[in-house]
Specification:
Elements lengths: L13 E5 L6 H12 L2 E4 H14 L7 H10 L2 E6 L2 E6 L2 E2 L7 H11 L2 H14 L5 E5 L2 H5 L5 E6 L2 H14 L6 H17 L12 E4 L5 H17 L2
Parallel strand pairs: 1-6, 1-7, 2-6, 7-8
Antiparallel strand pairs: 3-4, 4-5
The structure holds cytidine-5'-monophosphate.
Protein backbone atom coordinates (compact mmCIF):
# COMPACT_ATOMS: atom_id res chain seq x y z
CA UNK A 1 0.00 0.00 0.00
CA UNK A 2 1.39 3.37 -1.01
CA UNK A 3 2.37 5.75 1.77
CA UNK A 4 -0.04 8.59 2.42
CA UNK A 5 1.06 12.15 2.12
CA UNK A 6 0.08 14.45 4.93
CA UNK A 7 -1.15 17.63 3.33
CA UNK A 8 -3.69 19.04 5.82
CA UNK A 9 -4.22 22.19 3.77
CA UNK A 10 -5.50 19.98 0.94
CA UNK A 11 -8.44 18.78 3.08
CA UNK A 12 -11.66 18.84 1.04
CA UNK A 13 -9.97 20.24 -2.04
CA UNK A 14 -10.50 19.28 -5.69
CA UNK A 15 -7.66 18.24 -7.98
CA UNK A 16 -8.56 18.08 -11.68
CA UNK A 17 -6.38 16.49 -14.34
CA UNK A 18 -7.07 16.66 -18.07
CA UNK A 19 -5.14 15.54 -21.11
CA UNK A 20 -5.29 13.41 -24.23
CA UNK A 21 -5.53 9.61 -24.31
CA UNK A 22 -2.38 7.86 -23.22
CA UNK A 23 -0.94 10.85 -21.36
CA UNK A 24 -1.01 8.80 -18.16
CA UNK A 25 -3.99 10.53 -16.54
CA UNK A 26 -5.78 7.47 -15.22
CA UNK A 27 -2.88 5.77 -13.50
CA UNK A 28 -1.47 9.05 -12.22
CA UNK A 29 -4.82 10.26 -10.86
CA UNK A 30 -5.60 6.89 -9.27
CA UNK A 31 -2.21 6.72 -7.53
CA UNK A 32 -2.40 10.32 -6.47
CA UNK A 33 -5.86 9.80 -4.98
CA UNK A 34 -4.58 6.70 -3.18
CA UNK A 35 -1.62 8.59 -1.73
CA UNK A 36 -3.74 11.51 -0.61
CA UNK A 37 -6.62 9.34 0.63
CA UNK A 38 -8.94 11.09 -1.85
CA UNK A 39 -11.78 9.76 -4.03
CA UNK A 40 -10.66 8.96 -7.58
CA UNK A 41 -13.09 9.92 -10.34
CA UNK A 42 -12.42 8.52 -13.82
CA UNK A 43 -14.86 10.54 -15.95
CA UNK A 44 -13.81 8.70 -19.13
CA UNK A 45 -15.02 5.45 -17.56
CA UNK A 46 -18.50 6.97 -17.28
CA UNK A 47 -18.63 7.74 -21.02
CA UNK A 48 -17.22 4.28 -21.69
CA UNK A 49 -19.87 2.66 -19.47
CA UNK A 50 -22.65 4.40 -21.38
CA UNK A 51 -21.06 3.41 -24.71
CA UNK A 52 -20.74 -0.20 -23.53
CA UNK A 53 -24.41 -0.23 -22.54
CA UNK A 54 -25.51 1.24 -25.89
CA UNK A 55 -23.49 -1.30 -27.88
CA UNK A 56 -24.68 -4.15 -25.71
CA UNK A 57 -28.31 -3.25 -26.36
CA UNK A 58 -27.87 -2.33 -30.02
CA UNK A 59 -28.77 1.29 -29.39
CA UNK A 60 -27.69 3.83 -32.03
CA UNK A 61 -24.60 5.69 -30.77
CA UNK A 62 -25.57 8.65 -32.98
CA UNK A 63 -28.95 9.18 -31.29
CA UNK A 64 -28.45 11.82 -28.61
CA UNK A 65 -32.01 11.63 -27.30
CA UNK A 66 -31.92 7.89 -26.60
CA UNK A 67 -28.47 8.17 -25.04
CA UNK A 68 -29.62 11.02 -22.83
CA UNK A 69 -32.50 8.91 -21.49
CA UNK A 70 -30.16 5.98 -20.86
CA UNK A 71 -27.51 8.18 -19.24
CA UNK A 72 -30.14 9.44 -16.81
CA UNK A 73 -31.12 5.90 -15.85
CA UNK A 74 -27.78 4.09 -15.70
CA UNK A 75 -26.35 3.50 -12.27
CA UNK A 76 -22.58 3.80 -12.68
CA UNK A 77 -20.52 2.95 -9.62
CA UNK A 78 -16.82 2.76 -8.82
CA UNK A 79 -15.11 0.61 -6.21
CA UNK A 80 -11.43 0.95 -5.39
CA UNK A 81 -9.85 -2.50 -5.22
CA UNK A 82 -6.08 -2.26 -4.66
CA UNK A 83 -4.63 -1.07 -7.94
CA UNK A 84 -7.88 -1.56 -9.84
CA UNK A 85 -10.71 0.91 -10.04
CA UNK A 86 -13.66 -1.41 -10.57
CA UNK A 87 -16.57 -0.10 -12.60
CA UNK A 88 -20.18 -1.32 -12.30
CA UNK A 89 -23.20 -0.56 -14.46
CA UNK A 90 -26.54 -1.32 -12.81
CA UNK A 91 -24.72 -3.65 -10.42
CA UNK A 92 -22.84 -5.59 -13.13
CA UNK A 93 -19.06 -5.33 -13.22
CA UNK A 94 -17.80 -3.94 -16.55
CA UNK A 95 -14.22 -2.96 -15.60
CA UNK A 96 -12.71 -4.83 -18.55
CA UNK A 97 -15.61 -4.66 -20.98
CA UNK A 98 -15.50 -0.85 -21.12
CA UNK A 99 -11.88 -0.95 -22.37
CA UNK A 100 -12.41 -3.16 -25.42
CA UNK A 101 -11.48 -1.79 -28.88
CA UNK A 102 -15.22 -1.76 -29.82
CA UNK A 103 -16.06 0.58 -26.95
CA UNK A 104 -12.94 2.68 -27.57
CA UNK A 105 -13.94 3.09 -31.22
CA UNK A 106 -17.38 4.47 -30.34
CA UNK A 107 -16.85 6.38 -27.09
CA UNK A 108 -15.81 9.69 -28.68
CA UNK A 109 -19.00 9.79 -30.73
CA UNK A 110 -21.12 9.11 -27.65
CA UNK A 111 -19.31 11.65 -25.50
CA UNK A 112 -19.61 14.37 -28.15
CA UNK A 113 -23.40 14.68 -27.68
CA UNK A 114 -24.10 17.78 -25.54
CA UNK A 115 -27.21 16.06 -24.10
CA UNK A 116 -25.05 13.19 -22.84
CA UNK A 117 -22.41 15.52 -21.43
CA UNK A 118 -25.01 17.51 -19.53
CA UNK A 119 -26.17 14.42 -17.65
CA UNK A 120 -22.64 13.13 -16.98
CA UNK A 121 -21.29 16.49 -15.84
CA UNK A 122 -24.18 16.89 -13.37
CA UNK A 123 -23.37 13.47 -11.85
CA UNK A 124 -19.66 14.30 -11.73
CA UNK A 125 -20.29 17.63 -10.00
CA UNK A 126 -22.47 15.88 -7.44
CA UNK A 127 -19.72 13.31 -6.75
CA UNK A 128 -17.24 16.13 -6.17
CA UNK A 129 -19.46 18.42 -4.14
CA UNK A 130 -17.62 17.72 -0.88
CA UNK A 131 -14.20 17.98 -2.50
CA UNK A 132 -11.58 15.49 -1.41
CA UNK A 133 -11.43 14.22 -4.97
CA UNK A 134 -8.97 13.69 -7.82
CA UNK A 135 -10.93 13.85 -11.09
CA UNK A 136 -9.51 13.18 -14.53
CA UNK A 137 -10.77 13.39 -18.08
CA UNK A 138 -11.03 15.93 -20.89
CA UNK A 139 -13.11 18.71 -19.30
CA UNK A 140 -12.60 18.32 -15.56
CA UNK A 141 -10.45 21.47 -15.37
CA UNK A 142 -12.70 23.50 -17.68
CA UNK A 143 -16.34 22.45 -17.24
CA UNK A 144 -16.83 19.93 -14.43
CA UNK A 145 -14.65 21.58 -11.78
CA UNK A 146 -13.63 25.03 -13.04
CA UNK A 147 -13.27 25.88 -9.34
CA UNK A 148 -10.70 23.08 -8.74
CA UNK A 149 -7.90 24.15 -6.40
CA UNK A 150 -5.23 22.39 -8.44
CA UNK A 151 -5.50 21.90 -12.21
CA UNK A 152 -3.05 19.84 -14.21
CA UNK A 153 -2.80 19.28 -17.96
CA UNK A 154 -0.90 16.09 -18.74
CA UNK A 155 0.56 15.71 -22.20
CA UNK A 156 2.98 13.35 -23.95
CA UNK A 157 4.28 12.77 -27.46
CA UNK A 158 2.20 10.66 -29.83
CA UNK A 159 5.02 8.12 -29.88
CA UNK A 160 5.06 7.73 -26.08
CA UNK A 161 1.27 7.58 -25.86
CA UNK A 162 0.98 4.94 -28.59
CA UNK A 163 3.70 2.87 -26.92
CA UNK A 164 1.82 2.95 -23.59
CA UNK A 165 -1.50 2.03 -25.19
CA UNK A 166 0.18 -0.79 -27.08
CA UNK A 167 1.63 -2.22 -23.85
CA UNK A 168 -1.69 -1.87 -21.99
CA UNK A 169 -3.65 -3.60 -24.75
CA UNK A 170 -1.08 -6.35 -25.24
CA UNK A 171 -1.06 -7.02 -21.50
CA UNK A 172 -4.82 -7.39 -21.52
CA UNK A 173 -4.61 -9.89 -24.38
CA UNK A 174 -5.66 -7.65 -27.29
CA UNK A 175 -3.65 -8.12 -30.49
CA UNK A 176 -2.60 -4.75 -31.86
CA UNK A 177 0.37 -2.80 -33.23
CA UNK A 178 1.94 0.54 -32.31
CA UNK A 179 0.84 1.95 -35.68
CA UNK A 180 -2.75 0.90 -35.03
CA UNK A 181 -2.62 2.61 -31.65
CA UNK A 182 -1.13 5.75 -33.21
CA UNK A 183 -3.94 5.90 -35.76
CA UNK A 184 -6.55 5.42 -33.03
CA UNK A 185 -4.99 8.16 -30.87
CA UNK A 186 -4.89 10.62 -33.78
CA UNK A 187 -8.55 9.90 -34.54
CA UNK A 188 -9.66 10.27 -30.91
CA UNK A 189 -7.52 13.37 -30.28
CA UNK A 190 -9.14 15.02 -33.28
CA UNK A 191 -12.65 14.06 -32.23
CA UNK A 192 -12.13 15.07 -28.59
CA UNK A 193 -10.46 18.42 -29.27
CA UNK A 194 -12.61 19.63 -32.17
CA UNK A 195 -16.08 18.72 -30.91
CA UNK A 196 -18.40 21.61 -30.09
CA UNK A 197 -19.36 20.49 -26.58
CA UNK A 198 -16.54 20.91 -24.04
CA UNK A 199 -13.58 20.04 -26.26
CA UNK A 200 -10.31 18.98 -24.68
CA UNK A 201 -8.26 22.09 -24.08
CA UNK A 202 -5.64 23.36 -21.71
CA UNK A 203 -7.15 25.99 -19.43
CA UNK A 204 -5.08 29.01 -18.55
CA UNK A 205 -4.64 28.18 -14.88
CA UNK A 206 -3.60 24.54 -15.45
CA UNK A 207 -0.06 23.44 -14.78
CA UNK A 208 1.31 21.50 -17.75
CA UNK A 209 3.32 18.35 -17.29
CA UNK A 210 4.87 16.53 -20.26
CA UNK A 211 5.01 12.88 -19.29
CA UNK A 212 6.77 11.52 -22.41
CA UNK A 213 9.92 10.64 -20.51
CA UNK A 214 8.50 10.14 -17.02
CA UNK A 215 7.52 6.98 -15.19
CA UNK A 216 4.16 6.92 -13.44
CA UNK A 217 5.88 7.29 -10.04
CA UNK A 218 7.77 10.34 -11.35
CA UNK A 219 4.54 11.85 -12.67
CA UNK A 220 2.86 11.46 -9.29
CA UNK A 221 5.89 12.94 -7.51
CA UNK A 222 5.91 15.93 -9.89
CA UNK A 223 2.22 16.56 -9.30
CA UNK A 224 2.65 16.31 -5.51
CA UNK A 225 5.42 18.89 -5.84
CA UNK A 226 3.16 21.13 -7.93
CA UNK A 227 0.42 20.74 -5.34
CA UNK A 228 2.75 21.61 -2.48
CA UNK A 229 3.80 24.79 -4.28
CA UNK A 230 0.24 25.66 -5.24
CA UNK A 231 -1.41 25.06 -1.85
CA UNK A 232 1.24 27.15 -0.20
CA UNK A 233 -0.43 29.98 -2.11
CA UNK A 234 -4.06 29.01 -1.47
O1 LIG B 1 -9.99 8.73 -20.66
P1 LIG B 1 -10.55 7.72 -21.61
O2 LIG B 1 -9.68 7.44 -22.78
O3 LIG B 1 -11.02 6.48 -20.94
O4 LIG B 1 -11.86 8.42 -22.18
C1 LIG B 1 -12.62 7.80 -23.18
C2 LIG B 1 -13.31 8.85 -24.02
O5 LIG B 1 -14.32 9.50 -23.24
C3 LIG B 1 -12.43 9.98 -24.56
O6 LIG B 1 -11.81 9.65 -25.78
C4 LIG B 1 -13.44 11.09 -24.73
O7 LIG B 1 -14.11 10.95 -25.96
C5 LIG B 1 -14.45 10.84 -23.64
N1 LIG B 1 -14.28 11.71 -22.46
C6 LIG B 1 -14.85 12.94 -22.50
N2 LIG B 1 -14.80 13.76 -21.42
C7 LIG B 1 -14.19 13.36 -20.30
C8 LIG B 1 -13.57 12.10 -20.24
C9 LIG B 1 -13.62 11.29 -21.37
O8 LIG B 1 -15.41 13.33 -23.52
N3 LIG B 1 -14.18 14.18 -19.24
Amino acid sequence: MAARYKLPSLEGKIIAIDGPSGSGKSTTARLLAQKLGFIYLDTGAMYRALTWFALRHDLPTGDAKILEVIANRLKIEFKADGDVNRVYVNGVEVTEEIRTPEVTRKVSEVSAHPEVRKVMVAIQKELGKNGHIVAEGRDTTSVVFPEAHVKVYLDASLEARAQRRFLDMTRSGVKTTIDEQKADLIRRDKYDSTRKASPLKKVRDALTLDTSHLTIEEQVERIIKLIRTKIGRL
